[in-house]
Amino acid sequence: MRNIVILVLAIVMSSCELEKPIQTISIVNNYKNWQWDSVFVAKNKYISLAVVPQAAGRVLEYNLGDVPSLWLNPDLFGKSFASSEEVKTDEWRNFGGYRLVPIPVDNCAIGADGKKTKRWPPPVTIGDSPYKVKLSTDKNGHQSIDVESGIQELPVPTFDTKSQKFIYPEVIDERLQYKRSLRIETASSLVFIKHTLMNRGNKTVKRGIMTTSQHISRSQPELEDGENFRAYIPFDEGLKMPDGEQYHINVTPESRWRYVDRNRMPLNKNNPEHVKKYYNHGTNWNGEVAPGIFEIQYDYYLMGGFHMISSKNWLCYVNRTNNTAFVKIMEPFDPSLDYDFGVNAAIYNSGMVTGYLETEVKTPIHTLLPGESFDYEEMQGAAKIVSTPILDVNRTGIITKKLNFDRVTTSLNGEYGVFNEGVAVLQLFDKSGEIVKKIELEKVNPLKAFIFNCSLEDEARLSECQLLIKGDYGEEYLLDSFTF
Asked: Quick one: which of 109, 140, 155, 480 could link to 467 by a disulfide (CB 3.0–4.6 Å)?
């Protein structure tokens, strides 16, 4: 599996060498009236990203054209917070956007009994406090936005509601630091991200990180149209969780009932309509909507998460009101490594504030000696699509209808979203494996869904076809293939 990652990175590096260098990043004060100074903005003709140093270095914008993917908390615009870990349960500084949490989460704090425990809010220094941010330029002239956290000390204190005092650890066991490097290209919706977690302490630690994107879940502030905002996870029946289950939904009927009763409306268990509607673990877990594809939609009356192994190393969020998809391509799941809860992916349905649907990527848990670090590489991409569900994702684009040959009309067809500007090319092979024909189809780009239909002649002598996207500098990326 590691070879797959190396191959993907080699393709990325080769495309960088071919791409014409161009400055894509600027530093903007009061970007979009967010009230922060020095917001780092990366743009090309397809996407825009914004990294805010004062908001814990979070990515608070990733748009395809004028379509945003990330939910923002307007109550925190212009604010920043010190790295003090003296925070109570209701004091989470959630700016929204794209963030991270050290994992496992269950041993990041110290409880009243002196044992390691989970704390909410999560550790502040690495999650909420200002980051150092700078620009760097590689040998080919491509710019990156580089962020660096402060030193996060663990375990963090917790607030004891009985004594109304903070419980502090007697010893600091861990000192962690996080770095991220992010860049885009000139004719693509892809974002290339490198995460680094470093052990800055003098003891061996076992840590990973979870990166999360908080996605928009309403088309208008006054609407509750969560059914239009969906997430997709690919799964394989051969990849199960440690207890043998395919997935976990961490919502019980009681927990959902309590959440709605406390936060949305008074409920009555003598009311059959209330019981039917809210005494369940959620009705937004839509299940297997295509072979090996699980679908989740947003529900404003639910607070809970979904854990599953992503078998094809991608996650996808879709805004169906405008048929826009945002995907994450992470490192492949490795069964020989240790993962938090045994999974590399999760979806979280949050009812907080205006609500958001969250896609989560979990790295493996690494054993780090003092001074050691690990890197984790991720790509994100965005594209217009024709329909859902999402059937597959690769480096080139999104498949919503796989390449198929209609023997009645003798035509090939498929439906896609693409990450790169270029020309779609159909490459045909005969039964000896030789290329017999290349057909240039049409120009494509991330802002236009690609619907493909092409008539063929002499299909009997063909063995295979490949659908490629050819870039302006000669690079070719495989989008889909079909065997006759």
From this structure: 480
Give me 102's structure tokens: 């050290």
Task: Write the CB contacts of 8 (distance below 8 Å, at least 6 apart in sequence).
Answer: 329, 379, 395
Q: What is the mean pLDDT of residues 366-375?
A: 98
Q: What is the pLDDT of residue 13?
A: 41
Distance CA 61, CA 100 (A): 15
Phi, psi at 480, each rounded to 5°? -160, 165
Per-residue pLDDT band for 141 (boundaries 50, 70, 90) equals: confident
Say if residue 64's pLDDT is above 70.
yes
411 and 459 in contact (C-beta within 8 Å)?
no
* pTM of structure: 0.93
Q: Which amino acid is at 248?
A: H
* In contact, 176 and 150? CB cutoff 8 Å: no
Kindly report the number of other CB atoms within 10 A of residue 321's CB atom: 15
Kindly indicate the confidence band of residue 22, based on its pLDDT and cuts at 50, 70 and 90. low
In the three-class reduction of DSSP (H, G, I as helix; E, B as strand; rest coil), residue 239 is classed as coil
Q: Which residues contact 159 (CB under 8 A, 6 or more apart)?
A: 86, 87, 88, 89, 165, 166, 167
Residue type, 58: R
Q: How far is CA 475 from CA 12, 52, 291, 396, in A?
A: 11, 33, 32, 11
What distances in angstroms separate CA 194 from CA 60, 62, 183, 190, 320, one per listed residue?
Answer: 17, 17, 9, 13, 29
Helix (H) or strand (E) holding 148: strand 143-148
> CA-based angle 387:393:399, to the nearest 5?
35
Q: What are phi and psi of 9, to 5 degrees?
A: -65, -35
Q: What is the maximal distance between C-alpha atoms in the chain?
A: 82
Q: What is the pLDDT of residues 197-233, one digit of tens each?
A: 999 999 999 999 999 999 999 999 889 999 999 999 9
Q: What's the full length of the chain, in residues?
A: 484
Task: State whether residue 372 is helix, strand or coil.
Answer: coil
